[in-house]
Design a protein that fits this description.
The chain has 2 helices and 13 strands. The protein is of the alpha+beta class. Strands 1, 2, 3, 7, 8, 10 and 13 form a 7-stranded mixed sheet that branches. A 4-stranded antiparallel sheet has the order 6-5-11-12, with no helix packed on it. It has a two-stranded antiparallel sheet with strand order 4-9. The chain is elongated.
Length: 217
């Protein structure tokens, strides 16, 4: 009789021990589940950020906003100046056009002008002479690229915003092979701090005259 009672008490102890072990397993499983779910959320967020970063880097911060024009020199009738109108690409934030964050390179049939960018100026000039003077592109200055920013918000800085427009003015070299002749192709690459480079490729038409403006399309 005593043995049976002792055996029943022993079964109760075993049951309590099994319940404790089961509860411990449940707590451990819950903790592991939380870690797995948290890692899943973290991985998803990182994947989203990586994809967004890749997308941002694949899109250009600047886009063309009009016709690319040029002006020939007074001696040879070859293209010496190129004007590229740009604005911010849709959905992109403001872009600093300061000289430390922009690289402009020009590729000609017989010459390459690497990193000739020298900064930006805010202006309201309406004539070619005023613009050249403001950007300090005098007769003895060559192989230079500068931005002229219009419709400034009153900030008077080199940051291009959504409602502003800018003209990239490029003055090519002084040698004939550093200018653009008839039916020759020019490639302009503008790289900002973020996003892909803006690439502009144009071919000069025939019949270039001296000291005249040319529509490059």
């Amino acid at each position: 009789m005593f043995a049976k009672k002792l055996f029943r008490n022993r079964k109760g102890i075993v049951g309590v021990e099994a319940a404790i072990v089961l509860i411990a397993f449940l707590i451990i499983a819950a903790a592991l589940s939380y870690v797995v779910i948290n890692m899943g959320f973290y991985t998803t967020q990182k994947t989203k950020e990586t994809m967004q970063t890749g997308l941002d880097e694949s899109l250009t911060a600047l886009q063309l906003d009009g016709v690319v024009t040029a002006r020939t020199d007074e001696t040879y009738g070859r293209i010496l100046y190129v004007l590229v109108p740009v604005k911010l690409s849709a959905g992109r934030g403001a872009v600093d056009l300061g000289s430390s964050s922009v690289v402009v390179s020009v590729y000609l049939p017989n010459a390459t002008l690497m990193n000739i960018y020298q900064g930006a100026r805010v202006t309201n000039d309406t004539t070619w002479g005023e613009l050249v003077s403001t950007l300090n592109l005098m007769e003895d200055t060559y192989k230079v690229a500068k931005f002229a920013i219009y419709n400034d918000n009153g900030n008077n800085n080199t940051v291009l915003e959504s409602n502003e427009k800018a003209f990239l003015v490029i003055k090519l070299g002084s040698e004939t092979y550093e200018m653009l002749g008839e039916y020759e192709t020019i490639k302009i690459e503008v790289r900002t701090a973020k996003g892909a480079a803006l690439t502009v490729v144009r071919t000069a038409p025939g019949g270039l005259g001296k000291d005249s403006f040319v529509d490059l399309g």
